Amino acid sequence: MVRRWIFILVLVLAFDGAALWFWRQHKERRFNPLIREAALKYQLPPALVKAVIWKESDFDPNAVGKAGEIGLMQLMDEAAHEWAGSMHLTGFAHEHVFDPRTNTLAGAYYLSKVMRRYSTTDDPVTYALADYNAGRGNVLKWMTGPARTNSAAFRAQIGFPSTRAYVDAIRQRYAEYRTDFR
């Protein structure tokens, strides 16, 4: 009798585990076509855009942050309007970035812009992610001495532990997501 209950328990746990795995796969892959489109348009690696979405919203297009950032890539009003202006969109409102396609395009535009700021460094991704999270003003404070162009030195000088953890988490997930876009 005990063996039967153990068997049933193992079967239920296996089923739950498999269901959770399939749900997670669907959740993380459902936006891949939009991510690929936006990344190609703004010349970014799709896996990087996806890693930012993972960290910013955990793939929730209705996510709202404490400072008013919204959507998959947690865009602030100013960044969203900057993208809309570059696209010559009229009647654009910040709420439009709740749409996953709009959000991904606007977020990729902004991330691409930030990446270009640090194109003379040995690894623009590290600097861009810190900028995306903590803002340009903070990044400029941390870019002193060798950290002006050396990403390892820059990472060590990041003044906010949460930003350092943000950069590290996205870089790790970025490496994992590369297989999604081969």
Explain the overall architecture.
This protein is mainly alpha-helical and 182 residues long. The chain folds into 2 domains: 1-30; 31-181, Orthogonal Bundle (Lysozyme). It is 66% helix and 0% strand. The protein contains 9 helices and no strands. Helix 4 (77-86) crosses helix 5. The chain is globular. The termini are far apart.
What would you say about this model in short?
This protein has 182 residues and is mainly alpha-helical.
What structural keywords apply?
single chain, mainly alpha, 182 residues, Lysozyme, 9 helices
Task: Map the helices and strands.
Elements: H1 2-29, H2 32-41, H3 46-57, H4 77-86, H5 100-117, H6 124-134, H7 136-142, H8 151-157, H9 161-177
Helix pairs in contact: 2-3, 2-5, 3-9, 4-5, 5-6, 6-7, 6-9
* Structure classification: mainly alpha
Instruction: Work out the number of β strands.
Output: 0
Mean pLDDT: 91
Contiguous low-pLDDT stretches (5 residues minimum) are none
Q: What is the helix/strand order?
A: HHHHHHHHH
> So what's the overall shape?
globular
Distance between the termini: 50 Å
The percent range for strand residues is under 5%
Query: What helical percentage do the residues reach?
Result: 55-70%
CATH topology-level name of the largest domain: Lysozyme
CATH structural class of the largest domain? Mainly Alpha
Q: Name the CATH architecture of the largest domain.
A: Orthogonal Bundle
- How many domains, in number, for the residues? 2
- The helix tally amounts to 9
- Radius of gyration, in Å, reads 19 Å
